Amino acid sequence: MQAIRAGLNSAKYAYKTPESAVDYLVVGGGVVGLAIARCLSQRFSNQSTILVERHPRAGEETSSRNSEVIHSGLYYPPDSLKTRLCIRGREMLYDHFPSHTRKIGKLVVATETQRPYIESLHKKAQTLPWPSSFTTPPDRPALFTRLLSGEEVRRMEPNLSDDIVGALFCPETGIIDSHSFMESLEKDIVDSEGDLAYSTRVVRVDPATDSSNAGPGWVAQVVTEGATESDAIFAKTLINATGLSAPLIVNSFLPEAKRIPIFYARGSYASYSGPGISGISHLIYPCPDKENHRFQGLGTHLTLDFNGKVKFGPDVQYIFPSEDAAPDPDFWSRYLVPDDGRLAEMHRAVSRYLPGVKLEGFQPDYVGIRPKLVGPQGGFQDFVFRTDYPDDTRESQHSPLVSLLGIESPGLTSCLAIAEHVVENILADVDRR
Ligand SMILES: Cc1cc2nc3c(=O)[nH]c(=O)nc-3n(C[C@H](O)[C@H](O)[C@H](O)COP(=O)(O)OP(=O)(O)OC[C@H]3O[C@@H](n4cnc5c(N)ncnc54)[C@H](O)[C@@H]3O)c2cc1C
Ligand SMILES: *[C@@H]1O[C@H](CO)[C@@H](O)[C@H](O)[C@H]1NC(C)=O
Ligand SMILES: *[C@@H]1O[C@H](CO)[C@@H](O)[C@H](O)[C@H]1NC(C)=O
Ligand SMILES: *[C@@H]1O[C@H](CO)[C@@H](O)[C@H](O)[C@H]1NC(C)=O
């Protein structure tokens, strides 16, 4: 079970002297990179921001292959970045993007033996404070939940199993149309004069220490689809929001022993049409199995999209590169094709709470890959914001490379708060040194 510790394959590209310069270069056009570029271009209108994305469109990787659930912030340790950024991000999404979000609520359903689990989640929710990022916290609990009896929850969702004896109702949970949301982020960036460069891949990053003209910073070499030559861009500050590829840039200049390991956990979805889901109007989550560690995934749950389409997923399946070949950092892309090998197990998992569903109604839908910093037995792992500098000089402290690592769920929910954290805390801190 090998983790990948690869870096960018920079050897193919010789160092080039930069022909252009930018204040902020954001690498990666998923929800996180877009939210950061939006925040930068709105906040620093007198400085330049460019976002580069290797695919022809935004969000082609993990940002379009997830459950599209706005999480409430229930599951992670109370003082973790995941909890704080999730709660903050959730509120920002509902407030700023009302037409792309819908607060439909979720039910975590429990059998008799699982009752203590929902009771402990409820107890925890009662004590969660509003994160300090709220200067004037709303006049309501940060995370409202209510315990329901089996009868109460079956009144809300009549097709739930009689084995379900209770549920935790979480009205703050919702859904988001991630595609229209990303289009809005793009529009905001362009409106505040940020630049978006698609079909453009960063192939090499070098720290720039010579202070000949612009001072310290980073030289990023990019290749644009269809161009014969690469371009080198000098960036005063580089933000690495490349999701599954995020460790590659940092690893390219770290010694082997210090490199960041990356694990990949595949999650498959099945669409469903058939009996056993009459009038479903809430997201429905099972309690995670004891054996199946709850930090790895939340169990095969039911989600609804904006068109009312029902899907089940995602399951958790760690994937590993082949041992023999030099590991290809993009090996995971071969696993994006959904297959029907997961359907029987999914049907079994869902039948425990929705006994009327039929295997024939499950169709493979899509697959997403979680960027994991820990392996299958790893336990809780928070988001990581790593800062590197071109060298040890004082000057260079103004030119960070900020890498966002392990931005798995709730990364979509948190993206606006992640952007705020990077811009207002990490970069503001840098400027004050
Ligand atoms: C199965 C699954 C279910 C999930 N469910 C939820 C959920 O319900 N709610 C929730 O809040 N979160 C959920 N998440 C998490 C959420 O999807 C991610 O946290 C979020 O999409 C991460 O966004 P990102 O911008 O960091 O990464 P990405 O979307 O992966 O974006 C990174 C971008 O960088 C680009 N890139 C990479 N390398 C380069 C390069 N060298 N040059 C240029 N561009 C490059 C890529 O093409 C990609 O577009 C889920 C994740 C998975 C896998
Ligand atoms: C940009 O504007 C801010 C105020 O909005 C100012 O503090 C800062 O010095 C300006 N930066 C540059 C590079 O002009
Ligand atoms: C981004 O960060 C990741 C994770 O550390 C690293 O592997 C990757 O090389 C970085 N990319 C850039 C462009 O710095
Ligand atoms: C689902 O609920 C509907 C409406 O209450 C009911 O007619 C149907 O029999 C239920 N099916 C199952 C499998 O519980």
UniProtKB/TrEMBL annotation:
UniProt domain FAD dependent oxidoreductase: residue ranges: 23-424
Top-rank lineage group of the source organism: Eukaryota
Cofactor: FAD
UniProt GO molecular function: (S)-2-hydroxyglutarate dehydrogenase activity
Catalytic activity: (S)-2-hydroxyglutarate + A = 2-oxoglutarate + AH2
Enzyme Commission no: 1.1.99.2
Keywords annotated in UniProt: FAD, Flavoprotein, Oxidoreductase
Keyword Flavoprotein found: yes
Gene3D superfamilies: D-Amino Acid Oxidase, subunit A, domain 2, FAD/NAD(P)-binding domain
Keyword Oxidoreductase: yes
Pfam families per record: DAO (PF01266)
Similarity section: Belongs to the L2HGDH family.
Protein name per its UniProtKB record: L-2-hydroxyglutarate dehydrogenase, mitochondrial
Organism: Favolaschia claudopus
